[in-house]
Amino acid sequence: MKLSVPGRATGAAVIAVTALFTTSAIADAAPVRVAAAPDIPVANVKAHLTELQSIATANGGNRAHGRTGYKASLDYVKAKLDAAGFTTSIQQFTSSGRTGYNLIADWPGGNTDQVVMAGSHLDSVTSGAGINDNGSGSAAVLEAALAVSRTQYQPTKHLRFAWWGAEELGLVGSRYYVNSLSTANRAKISGYLNVDMIGSPNPGYFVYDDDPAIEKTFKDFYTGLGVATEIETEGDGRSDHAPFKSAGVPVGGIFTGASSTKSPAQATKWGGTAGQPFDRCYHSSCDTTSNINDTALDRNSDALAYAVWELSE
Predict the structure, then answer these.
(1) Alpha carbon of 62 to those of 68, 149, 168: distances in Å?
(2) Cα-only R_g, the chain
(3) Integer angstrom CA distances of residue 49 from 44, 203, 291
(4) CA–CA separation, 281 vs 305, rounded Å?
(5) What is the mean pLDDT of residues 170-198?
């Protein structure tokens, strides 16, 4: 997440449904859902974080815009998606005199007039590896996409996943993407899900209160876990959903907190330490693989998959 803004269900089995509409009673029956969201193995998500950490370590300690660590991160994600059968494209832009990249991955099939997108920013700040901010979101979006491939999910709507560049410089990559779309193509995006910082070590469970349907979908998931949520305010307008929202696209997302302090009431509700930041390593060199709460990462990765499945079927 940037500093400031300018400007399960359970199981992965597919349920086969035979539509024999031979009687009016059958024809009037409630539709049966064609798939349930899979559980996302947190070990898979953490494996991606380990790779992103290794990339940062090998490239000057960061994965920032215009640096070799960012491009290596993008190449890692793209290779996973290409091998899984996605149609990928790289969008290039320039910011602060350096070349930046967005990565877009489309899953074949579905109604391209109704697109469900999930995205995260892939860049870090220059001071560290950015494993919570935002390796956590990037890894969860990647693993949700790979789960689509593993289950060969064929939703009614078209699925698109994205990894944005130069978010830390002011939402540059996501704004470039939105501005590159025609009015007609913007209108085809039925929802954009933003995933920015979902493994904070002293986590809260925050849900964006933008589009009511998307908000309800995430809240329903957490209600099923018995986890209370709060409306996200710390990052409002400070992450990559903002350009989509400004263009009239329905948006939503999840968040575990950045530099704001956890209150005693929140510590009672969620555990953790009152009086301390949700992420004490926000935008600093200690944002490494040791700066992740596994329970929060697991829950939020599953929440993303749940929302992708629910909103696209």
Answers:
(1) 9, 30, 13
(2) 19
(3) 9, 18, 11
(4) 27
(5) 98
Report the pLDDT averaged over residues 256-260: 98
Cα gap 191→214, rounded to integer Å? 8
The tokens describing 194, both together, are 């933003």
Tell me which of 25-29, 47-51, 142-146 is least confident.
25-29
- The CA distance from 17 to 32, in Å, is 7
Query: How confident is the model over 18-39, as a mean pLDDT?
Result: 52
pLDDT at residue 34 is higher than 80: no
Q: Which residues carry out catalysis?
A: 167
Report the C-alpha gap between 123 and 170 in whole angstroms: 12
Q: What is the identity of the amino acid at 20?
A: L
> How confident is the model at residue 2, as a pLDDT?
62
Contact 115, 188 (CB under 8 A): yes
The whole-number average pLDDT for the span 138-149 is: 98
What string of DSSP letters covers 100-141?
EEEEEEEES-SEEEEEEEEEEE--B-TTS--IIIIIIHHHHH
In angstroms, the CA 139 to CA 298 distance is: 11
Residue 294, helix vs strand vs coil: helix
**pLDDT tens, position by position, 270-310:** 999 999 999 999 999 999 999 999 999 999 999 999 999 99
Whole-angstrom Cα distance, residue 36 to residue 281? 36
Structure tokens at 73: 């991160």
Q: Which residues contact 73 (CB under 8 A, 6 or more apart)?
A: 52, 55, 63, 122, 138
